[in-house]
Amino acid sequence: MANVSIRNLQIQLGANKVIDALDLEVDAGEFIVLLGPSGCGKSTLLHSIAGLNDAAGGQIRIGGRDMTYADPKDRGIALVFQSYALYPTMNVERNMSFGLRINGTPKAEIERRVARAAEMLQLGPLLKRKPAELSGGQRQRVAIGRAIVRQADVFLFDEPLSNLDAKLRTELRRELKTLHRQLGATMIYVTHDQVEAMTLADRMAVMKGGVIQQFDTPDAIYRAPENLFVATFLGSPGMNLFEGRIDTRGGLRFVTEHMALDVAHYPFRQPPTDGQRVVLGVRPEDVDVAADGHADGFYRAPVALVEAMGAHRVVWHSFHGTQVAAIVQDDRPGGAFALRGGQISLFDATTTQRL
Questions:
Q1: Are the C-beta atoms of residues 176 and 120 closer than 8 Å to each other?
Q2: Where is the ABC transporter domain (predicted)?
Q3: 330: exposed, middle or buried (C-beta count within 10 Å: 0-12, 13-18, 19+)?
Q4: Which residue of 217, 221, 250, 285 is most buried, as measured by CB atoms within 10 A?
């Protein structure tokens, strides 16, 4: 395993500057996820680490060595693509060992590595089958196994599960996490699926427009998003948002025309000013629901929709033109809601940055 250090990276595709002055530090043995919407630059960044994109500037170091302009074969990486890219005329065993055979690896060593990878990925009974005889999930296991036998310093995954159905994605996600623990390898994984990111990552980098918006543990990012983009990108349903201002007269409150909430205990990074325009965010699981608004801190709002999700329900309230989602575990009818003040986030309305 090896660390990956990216400093001031610049990637330009044609006339389009996709990444500009990007920094990223990945510790040896970490599982890092690059998360973001389509076109945010996450795959471009991954391909740059792999050497498939030329750097216009900056530096990429792998295991302490400068690999900015090294050929992909010299970088000590293994790349797993979204498509399986298996040779249709070769069986599983030969697909997994193809790269080793081309490099002249001794036969006994090839057999040892293939056997170990097959055991990890439960491919033993499938070694003599060809890709056409495999399911989508089995094919992706073979593609991952082909990467494992290379014994690379860094494993790169470019949305490897996106072609699979929901059940298979869940199974392979669990297997990838187990595989990471077994190998202890450095892994960098690209996805637009927040569930994959939250469950797989030791740390994750949320990207937008070629810029890393926040790089931290999944829990830290979910609970304390750095800006409104991160706040709304993570979570299903997304974070509830209320536009208002800070009132410092007689305390410290967030106020709107229809709401007032004490924010005196909020951990402001800088003291707020009276009248400052802000956006308050709260996760749906931090919204309490009641049948009416008589209890202290509850606001009356008619129920617009109830979504049954199996283990819980999402109750949507209509509050003066704002849709407020609450996740509840029982069959309370709703009709009023309250915000848990200790679980809120506040953002500057102009800069969108966390206060």
A1: no
A2: 4-234
A3: exposed
A4: 221
Helix, strand or coil, per DSSP, at residue 159: coil
Q: In 3-state terms, what secondary structure has residue 108?
A: helix
Tokens of 44: 């471009």
Residue with the two structure tokens 């970088």: 75
**Structure-token pair, residue 320:** 């003066």
Percent of the chain's residues with pLDDT above 90: 66
Three-state SS across 114-155?
Answer: HHHHHHHCCCHHHCCCCHHHCCHHHHHHHHHHHHHCCCCCEE
Q: Are 13 and 169 in contact (CB under 8 A)?
A: no
Q: Which of 131, 140, 183 is nearest to 162 (CA)?
A: 140
Where in the sequence of the chain do the CATH 3.40.50.300 domains occur? 4-232
Read off the pLDDT of residues 262-320 as tens digits, 9 standing for 90 and up: 999 999 999 999 999 999 999 999 999 988 766 778 999 999 999 998 889 999 999 99
CA-derived radius of gyration, the chain: 24
In order, the DSSP letters of 12-48 are: EETTEEEEEEEEEEE-TT-EEEEE--TTSSHHHHHHH
Under DSSP, the state recorded for 76 is T
Instruction: Indicate the class that CATH gives domain 4-232.
Output: alpha beta
Sorted by sequence, the CB contacts under 8 Å of residue 189 that are 6+ apart come out as 31, 32, 33, 34, 156, 157, 160, 176, 196, 200, 201
- Edge-to-edge strand ranges of the sheet holding 336-339: 287-290, 336-339, 299-300
Nearest to 199 by CA among 228, 239, 169, 160: 169
Nearest-angstrom CA–CA distance, 36 and 41: 8
- Give 269-324 as a DSSP string: SS---TT-EEEEEE-GGGEEEESSS-STT-EE--EEEEEE-SS-EEEEEEETTEEE
Residue 5 contacts residue 61 (beta carbons within 8 Å): yes
pTM of the predicted model as reported, rounded to 2 decimal places: 0.90
Helix axes 136-148 and 107-120, enclosed angle (nearest 10): 130
Q: Using an 8 Å Cβ cutoff, are 131 and 86 in contact?
A: yes
